[in-house]
């Protein structure tokens, strides 16, 4: 990725800017990104059973769509590698079970997330309402304000243009309540899937670079006498 991927709709997005933070661009040009290229950023995907979480992840990571449904047992994950502004970067994408009986197992894997993706089925608006609880559960395991939140409507291919637009009105409203960025996707056709995860990667990468730069700047100061550590 050499560009800062744009939002799906300006009505519900995390950042409206069109390019990487100036400090990030400079740091990448100088290849001075510290340990950013050596770490995985954790992405957790949550949502009801049958909404298509696994299909979404497989479409992006493997470019496949499996029509035969298999429920995720507990948790699973994929690692997707990028090169962003010339710097290697990886997302560790965790696929969590939507079944109630696996919630206790899955919740242990919510911790340390940099990104939380709450998925729902555009053809079943009850699953949209359930995203409130899924997000609450995931946020409970993380520090306040530490995660990017995305609300994703799946199975876009199953709705007509008018029906999709109506569903999106409700989804955008809820996304704003959640302080989340909204996307509509189709794992079956691949529509918006690559763009969505590229957007996730761009935002997570930028945050990682800025946080790493801040940590290294702080580490240069000797506690006590203020001398620089060489």
UniProtKB/TrEMBL annotation:
The Swiss-Prot or TrEMBL record lists the needed cofactor(s) as:
Mg(2+)
Q: Which GO molecular function terms does the record list? A: G protein activity; GTP binding; metal ion binding
| EC number(s) reported in the record | 3.6.5.2
Top EC category? hydrolase
The alphabetized list of GO BP terms reads: protein transport
The protein's matches in PROSITE patterns, at most eight in alphabetical order, are given as:
RAB, RAS
Coiled coil located at which positions? none
Principal location class: Golgi
Catalytic activity, as annotated: GTP + H2O = GDP + phosphate + H(+)
KW Plastid (keyword) present? no
Give the record's membrane topology. Answer: Lipid-anchor
Sorted alphabetically, the keyword list is: Golgi apparatus, GTP-binding, Hydrolase, Lipoprotein, Magnesium, Membrane, Metal-binding, Nucleotide-binding, Prenylation, Protein transport, Transport
User: Record's SMART domains?
Assistant: RAB, RAN, RAS, RHO
Compartments it resides in: Golgi apparatus membrane
Extract the Pfam families matched here: Ras (PF00071)
Q: Which GO terms describe its cellular component?
A: Golgi membrane
Q: Does this UniProt record's set of keywords contain Lipid metabolism?
A: no
Function noted in UniProt: The small GTPases Rab are key regulators of intracellular membrane trafficking, from the formation of transport vesicles to their fusion with membranes. Rabs cycle between an inactive GDP-bound form and an active GTP-bound form that is able to recruit to membranes different sets of downstream effectors directly responsible for vesicle formation, movement, tethering and fusion.
Report the sequence similarity comment from the record.
Belongs to the small GTPase superfamily. Rab family.
- What's the name of the protein? Ras-related protein Rab-36
């Amino acid at each position: 990725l050499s560009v800062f991927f744009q939002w799906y709709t300006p009505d519900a997005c995390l950042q409206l800017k069109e390019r990487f933070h100036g400090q990030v661009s400079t740091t990448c040009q100088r290849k001075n990104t510290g340990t950013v290229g050596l770490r995985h950023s954790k992405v957790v995907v949550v949502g009801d059973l049958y909404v298509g979480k696994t299909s979404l992840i497989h479409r992006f990571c493997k470019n496949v769509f499996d029509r035969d449904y298999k429920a995720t047992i507990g948790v699973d994950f994929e690692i997707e590698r990028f090169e962003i502004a010339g710097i290697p970067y990886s997302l560790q994408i965790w696929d969590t079970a939507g079944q109630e009986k696996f919630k206790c197992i899955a919740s242990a894997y919510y911790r340390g997330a940099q990104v939380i993706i709450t998925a729902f089925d555009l053809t079943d608006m009850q699953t949209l309402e359930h995203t409130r609880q899924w997000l609450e559960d995931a946020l409970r395991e993380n520090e306040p304000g530490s995660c990017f939140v995305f609300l994703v409507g799946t199975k876009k291919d199953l709705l007509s243009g008018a029906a999709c637009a109506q569903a999106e009105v409700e989804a955008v409203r809820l996304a704003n309540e959640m302080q989340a960025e909204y996307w509509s996707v189709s794992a079956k056709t691949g529509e918006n899937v690559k763009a969505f995860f590229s957007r996730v990667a761009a935002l997570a990468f930028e945050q990682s670079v800025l946080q790493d730069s801040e940590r290294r700047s702080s580490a240069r100061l000797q506690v006590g006498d203020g001398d620089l550590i060489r």
